[in-house]
Amino acid sequence: MRIYRAKDYEEMSRRAAGIVSAQIIMKPDCVLGLATGSTPVGLYKQLIEWYRNGDLDFSGVRTVNLDEYKGISRENDPAGNTHLPDGMEPDSEKECRRYEELIRSMGSVDLQLLGIGHNGHIGFNEPSDVFDKQVHCVNLTQSTIEANKRFFASAEDVPKQAYTMGIQTIMRSKKILIMANGEGKADIVRDS
Ligand code: PGA
After folding, report:
1. Whether residue 8 lies in the annotated active site
2. What is the CA radius of gyration of the chain?
3. What are the angstrom distances between the C-alpha of 167 and each of 125, 132, 134?
4. Which mutation among 12, 39, 183, 187 tests ligand 1's pocket best, with the greatest number of atoms within 8 A of CB?
5. What is the C-alpha separation between 83 and 70, in angstroms, rounded?
6. Rounded distance between C-alpha atoms, residue 78 and residue 35, angstroms
7. φ, ψ for residue 186 (rounded to 5)?
8. What's the whole-number average pLDDT of the chain?
9. In what order do the strands lie in the sheet with 161-164?
10. What is the pTM of this model?
């Protein structure tokens, strides 16, 4: 494991974007595992800038998203090379099986991006979850609902369940890049 320290959010985002772009340049048809949340926003903005400048080519890249709320529909249809759990599929078992099989059919994820929750959750895998899980449906804990209500009108609007890659799915990735920033994450970074 390598630990990079950055002086602030901008530097962290640029360095992380550098790691992602190196992956794309080394293997233009790579599979990237993408994370949501606020942490990777700066990284994505940097990648967009490099793409717009013509320095980065995503045409061969395929992506799989780490997780999705159950019951949330897509605002946009993702393009052909981008994949995420279907939050509108009510049959959890069916959707988890479909998504796990889809990830396997793409071969290994070359580089998986991750954030980490204040309580140490990875994707929607809470710290107490067992490590051998594949894609599964989780009941969100109150602390995760509280932490994520900032993305919704109110805590009541946060879905109560989500589909997430399991730790086993994540650990099959060839490389993993976990990003954490801000004082609020200091304790969990120290304890991880
Ligand atoms: P954040 O979320 O990037 O918005 O802090 C991280 C997470 O909960 O995994």
Report:
1. no
2. 16
3. 7, 6, 7
4. 39
5. 15
6. 15
7. -60, -45
8. 94
9. 67-69, 161-164, 136-139
10. 0.95
